[in-house]
Amino acid sequence: MKKPLYKGLLFLALIVFSASTVFAQKETDYDPYAPILKYPRAQDPAQIEKRDREIFIARLLEQPFRPIGYALGETAEWAERTHLENKLTWAYTELTSHGIYPQLRRPPSDSFLVPTGLGARVQIEKLLNIEESFVTANATGGWAPNINYAGTTVDLEGDYKIQSSSRPYYHNGSARYWRSSAENFYGIGQNTSRGERSSYQPEEVWLEGGIGYDLNESNELHGAVVYQRMNIGNGNRERIGKIKEHFPVGIPGIDGGDLIGLVNKWIHDGRDHKTDPRKGGIQTLEFSYFHDTDGKDFQYLKMAGSVAHFFPILSDRRVLALRIRVEKNQELGGGEIPFYNLARLGGSSIRDGSELLRSYAFNRYFDEGLIVANAEYRYNIYEYGNFAGDAVALFDVGEVFEEIHDFGFDELKFSYGSGLNLKYKRHTILFFSLARGNEGWAARVHTHASF
Amino acid sequence: MKRNSKSILIISCVVVISCLTGSAAGFAMTVEELEHRIKNNNTSFYHEFFDTIVYKQFVKILQFDRLAQEIKKSPALDINSFDEVPDSTFFVNRQGKQPLSTTELLQGPAKGTGPDPSGPWRIIKGKMEGVSVGVFIQDSKGDRYLLKFDPKEYPEMATSAEIISHKFFYAFGYHVPEYYLVQFKPDVFEIDPAATYYNDDGFKKQFDQEALKSFLEKIPKFKGGVIRTSATKILRNVEGYTPFEGRRKDDPDDLIPHEFRRSLRGLRVFGAWLNHYDLREGNTLDIIEEENGAAFLKHYLIDFGSTLGSAASHPKVPVAGYEHIIDWYEVSKATPTLKVVEKQWEQKWDKQKRQISFPAIGYFDNSRFDPGTWKTQLPYEVFNRLTASDAFWAAKIIMSFSDENIRAVIDSAKFSDSEDAKIMSSILTARRSIIGRYWFSRVTPLDRIQLSELGDQNDHIQFEDLNIKYGFAAAKDTTYRFKLEFLGQNGKTTHISHQEFNSPSFSFTIPSQDIVRVTIWTQARYGKDGAWSQPPLKIVLGKSQNDVPFSIVEIDHGL
To answer: A–B: how many Cβ contacts below 8 A?
Structure first.
């Protein structure tokens, strides 16, 4: 009897042990991917409606902009679907393949928003399919409404150049007609006042015939005989005085004049890129002589030089661009210098003929001599493929003077500010600048870099 | 309180049923009914560019809900109680649920073998949309495909990217069309007399022999005049694209705003791994499909030619992945600093002497890669809403691919130079770890939580520490701690403060039979001087009745 009891107890103990080992760690199973949503109310129709309503209310201020956003978005989509970009590129390429280069025309301005006109350059030999590669000829013309649409600026020009590809020398000639309904004039000298602002209407014919010699790839010598005929009228701009009423006497050339001149230039261009230089530099030197042909007693010598250099700072994404220009027009034989050929300072584009002093008005200062220095720290702030953007910290300093000994450091005018240069394939699309100086702020936009 | 609980329960049931059936409120629709209801939507790159870069950036300050999101992130709404994304028309758990076998991985979404290389392939039209050119063909079986090619200077780059990435995206769980790598001779082409294409000038032209000749000139040829293409099987019943924000209100199943979907937020992490900077609405397709007589809208990701080092028609630009196409934030950050220090991507590009070293790979490496700041080409709110637990979810799926898995997928792209495959493999393997390490450090990276009942009110929790599993931390230097909160039937709570332990499991005693809910916060500390992981992992145990054991009712990795 004892044995079976012992065996029975052992058997029972075994069962208990086995059960305890089996059931002691009973795993409670769950499916981690089960569709038991954590926030089931998120799918409740009443909640969805409430959420949509709350989002609408939270975005109430946006609602007025939605139709505009929608329309522009749809337009963008339409442009893509119709391959508009490709068609426009094709149209432009077609034009340029026939030697026609569309251009924009913007009059010199003192303000950010400037009316824009159109122009074109026609490369004659391409248009007429002329094979002779040693002749290049262009016809250029453009039109733009002036500030406040009170008049227009018109330019027409024809030029040609004859140069054999194997020879370094060339001959060129050009004829230009240019008229503007209103240009700034504040008087002559460095102490003119903003209150003296008047406007004049220049109308110019410029004829030029010259020869040149390419010393090497980056050096060029050029000499030309020029004829300039200038008519000056009163400017046409609202609320701005007219030059002949404002300055009835004492301004040489106020009635225009005819001049003949001999122009000599040396240009050294060692920049790595024409429109977006990051290293190298460009230097120019000019000696010219002018004499009247209509007895108005104009006779003077023009001496001018400029040096611009571009220094990459440890990287080509940071460039210090420095430029200095000195000009002196010197009367000869008791003659005078017409005011429209004097050195000019003020504005934001040297292409308009007035040197960079960006917080000041265009044509702010006229005088026989000029010294101006510009510094820009250009640094890349954006790049995505072919698109890029440079921020620019800019500084201009300059002064006009009658004689060298009139130059005084205390008379220097300053501008400082910043800019943004938006580029595509290293060509400026838009250049915005905002500058400040003694005469306040000036914001401007151009389709080219400063220098 | 009671009524509220009841309504939640009812809604839960409805949602569960609708999830399972694939239709809202359990009402199945036929294909015709759904087709009638769905309004086809359209988008394009320019449209998206304008919307995301210009319009939405401008109106952002007028959208107070978005501003609130900037301050405090919201959890995803498509997740289940266990912090996972249940299967839906957006996402199906594949690799995350159970690592796929190499065969399954290589098979991907393919159901066949692709267009028969022996031809004939009838060209239906040319493709100019998007950045890469291609042709639509119909093969001898009547199936339609879009053939895309490599740029001439970068043979194998775009086709490899497409073949590799689509397989990974499918394995992650996304709906992806069938892609096939096909090598063929150009004599398989026939031209449909009605075939047209848009030429480089943007004009519609007839696709004739001359067009074919000029088209073939742009494509790289391999030995024997063989051409390599990635062939995408054309999806039918296309009903537009998936918006990355808001809902498709015409879709009865689309109830959660897409910026609240983890499956879409997580694309930012998956995109970072595969450098898919072209993740955008235009690269999605909504398709009407039918299952068991019920029609639903299924959301596909398409076009993977701009992944890895490829931008389809050229290698990726150096800034890709670091900045949006116009990144106002980066521009505004760069302006006042005067570029005293160059940007990360600039330093990297300069270090490589601004050269593409491997044409078949394009521009792709891990130097200065930061998973947290990686960006898509266009900025989308849905990616901005990514929370740490969303990213953890995606990162653990990425981490689940073994080195062998990765190498096998890369090999399926058939690089002619094995060195390219080797380099690509090493980049993706290392990038996988960078992503895992980064996002696992933003949460308490514990997974596979298991609850066991030891009896006598004793319970045991076991987990897998992913930092240890993947070698980001050593088990011997790791400490864990937990704290508990007990909720009784009477609504009273009692707490047990932190208790430390060293192994990936711990036990605790439930103080009374009255306890109906236990909340456990668990943290890990890696290294002796390390900080406790934040946010703590929250595990909630519950039971519906007194006499049933506790079970896991919620897992939350925090925001």
So the answer is: 192
* Contact across the interface for B260 and A42, Cβ inside 8 Å: yes
Chain B residues within 8 A of A40 when measuring between CB atoms:
8, 11-12, 15
Supply the ipTM of this predicted assembly: 0.89
Query: For residues A6 and A400, what is the distance between their CA atoms, to the nearest angstrom?
Result: 125
Residue B267 sits at the vertex; the CA angle it makes with B265 and B272, to the nearest 5 degrees, is: 125
From chain A residues 386-425, the ones with a CB under 8 A of any chain B CB are 389, 391, 393
**Distance, CA of B190 to CA of B119 (rounded, Å):** 9
Instruction: Please say whether the beta carbons of B154 and B359 come within 8 A.
Output: yes
- Hey, are the CB atoms on A24 and B44 less than 8 Å from each other? no
Count the domains in chain A.
1
CB contact under 8 A, A69 and B342: no
Q: Is residue B8 part of a domain?
A: no
Is residue A38 a part of any domain in this protein?
no
Domain check: are B433 and B475 in the same one? no
Interatomic CA distance for residues B356 and A224, integer angstroms:
50
In 3-state terms, what secondary structure has residue A61?
Answer: helix
The boundaries of the domain holding residue A348 are 83-446
A316 and chain B in contact, CB less than 8 A? no
Pairing assessment for the beta strands A241-242 and A198-214 based on DSSP bridges: parallel
Is there a contact between A89 and B454 if contact means CB atoms under 8 Å apart? no
Q: What is the pTM of this model?
A: 0.90
Chain B contact present for A48, CB below 8 A: yes
Question: How many structural domains are present in chain B?
Answer: 2
Residues B403 and B297 in one domain: yes
Per-residue pLDDT of chain B (559 residues; tens, 9 = 90+): 343 444 444 444 444 444 443 444 446 889 999 999 999 899 999 999 999 999 999 999 999 999 998 889 999 999 999 999 999 999 999 999 999 999 999 999 999 999 988 889 999 999 755 567 799 999 999 999 999 999 999 999 999 999 999 999 999 999 999 999 999 999 999 999 999 999 889 999 999 999 999 889 989 999 999 999 999 999 999 999 999 999 999 999 999 999 999 999 999 999 999 999 999 999 999 999 999 889 999 999 999 999 999 999 999 999 999 999 999 999 999 999 999 999 999 999 999 999 999 999 999 999 999 999 999 999 999 999 999 999 999 999 999 999 999 999 999 999 999 999 999 999 999 999 999 999 999 999 999 999 998 888 899 999 999 999 999 999 999 999 999 999 999 999 999 999 999 999 999 999 988 899 999 999 999 998 899 999 999 999 998 777 788 999 999 999 8
